[in-house]
From TrEMBL:
Identification of the protein by name: Fimbrial protein
Annotated Fimbrial-type adhesion domain residues: 40-172
GO BP: cell adhesion involved in single-species biofilm formation
Keywords for the protein's UniProt record, in alphabetical order: Signal
UniProt GO cellular component terms: pilus
Annotated signal peptide: 1-30
Organism from which the protein derives: Serratia proteamaculans
Xref: InterPro entries: Adhesion_dom_fimbrial (IPR000259), Adhesion_dom_fimbrial_sf (IPR036937), Adhesion_dom_sf (IPR008966), Bact_Fimbrial_Adh_Pro (IPR050263)
Top-level taxonomic group: Bacteria
Amino acid sequence: MMRNTFRRRGPQAMQVLALASLLLSGTALAKMDDSTVNVKISGTVVANGSCTFTGTDPIAVEFGDVIINDIKDKAYKQSLPYTLSCKGDPGGKAIQMKLTGTAADFDGTLLKTDAKGLGLSLQKDDKAMALNQWVDIDPASPPKFDAVLVKQKDASFQNGQAFNGSATLIVGFN
């Protein structure tokens, strides 16, 4: 009768036994059933900031009755009321605004009105600003914009003559 016996024969026998154990355990692990679980990851990527003006109505600036000889030294100055709300990350870009419109025929720095010889100086924080030019702003403290009536030298107007002008206020990330 033959007996199966293992005899210790030195370090090689231990290595063979350890290798056989690893191979058998690997096989046992390979036969285990796979178990899966779904992982749901959610969040909001804010890659860009956004700014919006509150309200949908156009900004109306009313000068009322204007005495022609008093159009000087900012006698007719009206604020442009607006509310700006910004959120998100501008991604290192500057937040800027500009007032766009058609320049007056007699002075390219003024906004044109429909009354010949009458224009509007657009001002940011009491300083004249160039029409159609971007200016940096701090959305936490938006600038104050004003419109100031400017008359062309020697321009004449009729009593009761109405005037209108229009511009677009734009905010952007540049």
